[in-house]
Design brief:
Strand content: 5-15%
Shape: globular
CATH superfamily of one domain: Alpha/Beta hydrolase fold, catalytic domain
Structural class: alpha/beta
Largest sheet: 8 strands, mixed
Helix content: 40-55%
Number of strands: 8
CATH topology of one domain: Rossmann fold
CATH architecture of one domain: 3-Layer(aba) Sandwich
CATH class of one domain: Alpha Beta
Distance between the termini: 45 Å
Oligomer: single chain
Radius of gyration: 20 Å
Length: 370
């Protein structure tokens, strides 16, 4: 669906840009005290979660096609020989830290002994290329190139390198993992299974929030199906799209081509051939993908294929596993400044309880299994 395809933003984590970060920090502790009745020391911990200056960090670039991707390898300590997770972004023009929004997650995993490598998407930050020119296969091949780069740059990691990713990464990680015989693990958070089904769900949630009845919603979804069969037909062009949309802010031509290239994406075939141990996680209150339906699909396919495969739906959690009572928005751009400041104040505590212990504990269990 056009609406979902233009708004599938991966992890719905606020993305405070560095230019705004200091201003947010100045007021975050005050707001924190007003909104959340927890000890003030947690606010200081939350703010420290946006700082990785004391972490051993190495800048690592790698080539993929005509692009050069630039990223950062951050380790728990300089002698780290344990697991390293390659962070695969969701949709959108995300830099390596998603505008600092990923830093609490990164610091929480570093504290649990998990190294992280994350790179700027093509054409973002210090990376060349254009992420909008990619298919999901292109993204998977890029992830494989990142894996090879980290394995070369950090040979002490042994056979302990894997992937962790959000939302659109649900189409990327299974493809990439199948190309890497020694990939150690996959963690997929809020992964969508079928692009068009996800679009229907996303549209349904937006219309429900606007107070639409079920009858109105079903009619709108059916109209979307008819429209999409025209504007994304094999012989359709950007001009076809413009002639068949009344959107006051239509997609740019490169975004249209990205959607057309990927609208038939479906993870089922790749999941059915996946041999790497995989942890799939959703927030029960996810507004972007159908957590119940997609988790059921993953269970049907993955459980029993590998003894470590696990499917988890976390109560009171969002698309990106944040606390849903505080941060449940479909798009980070919809999150008011007050909630962004609260996110800065809370840091890792903005996530649903137990999230990081589950991820890190599962990864360590997988890599220590005989």
């Amino acid at each position: 669906m056009v609406l979902a395809a233009t708004n599938l933003k991966g992890c719905a984590v606020p993305s405070p840009r560095r230019v705004r970060y200091r201003r947010l920090v100045r007021v975050a502790i005050v707001l924190f005290g007003l909104l959340v009745a927890v000890p003030g020391s947690l606010a200081l911990v939350g703010l420290s979660d946006f700082d990785i200056s004391n972490r051993p960090t190495k800048q690592i670039s790698f080539a993929h096609g005509d692009a050069v991707l630039s990223g950062s390898l951050i380790l728990p300590d300089a002698q780290h020989t344990g697991p390293i997770a390659l962070l695969v972004h969701g949709d959108g023009p995300q830099d390596r830290f998603a505008g600092d929004g990923y830093l609490p997650l990164i610091n929480a995993l570093l504290d649990r002994g998990i190294g992280i490598y994350s790179w700027d998407k093509a054409g973002v930050g210090e990376s060349t290329g254009n992420w909008l020119s990619q298919s999901m296969n292109d993204r998977a091949n890029e992830a494989v190139a990142a894996y090879d780069a980290i394995k070369t740059a950090h040979p002490d990691g042994g056979q302990q390198i894997g992937f962790i990713g959000f939302s659109q990464a649900g189409w990327v990680i299974p493809k990439a993992s199948r190309m890497i015989p020694d990939n150690a693990f996959n963690v997929i958070i809020g992964g969508a299974v079928n692009w068009q089904d996800q679009g229907d769900f996303y549209t349904r949630q937006r219309l429900l929030a606007d107070g639409a009845t079920q009858e109105v919603i079903e009619r709108q979804i059916e109209r979307n199906h008819v429209r999409d069969s025209v504007i994304f037909a094999p012989d359709a062009s950007y001009e076809t799209y413009l002639a068949n949309t009344n959107d006051p802010s239509p997609m740019a031509s490169d975004r249209y081509e990205f959607v057309k290239r990927n609208i038939t994406s479906d993870a089922i075939a790749d999941l059915a051939q996946l041999e790497t141990p995989t942890l799939a996680m959703w927030g029960r209150d996810d507004l972007n993908v159908d957590a119940k339906s997609d988790a059921d699909i993953y269970r049907d396919i993955l459980i029993g294929r590998h003894p470590e495969n696990e499917v988890v739906v976390i109560p009171d959690a969002t698309h990106g596993l944040l606390r849903s009572n505080l941060f449940n928005y479909q798009l980070s751009s919809e999150m008011p400044t007050s909630r962004q400041m609260l996110y800065v104040a809370l840091g890792r505590y903005a996530y649903a309880p137990g999230t990081f212990d589950k991820i890190a504990g599962w990864i360590k269990q997988v890599i220590t299994r005989p």
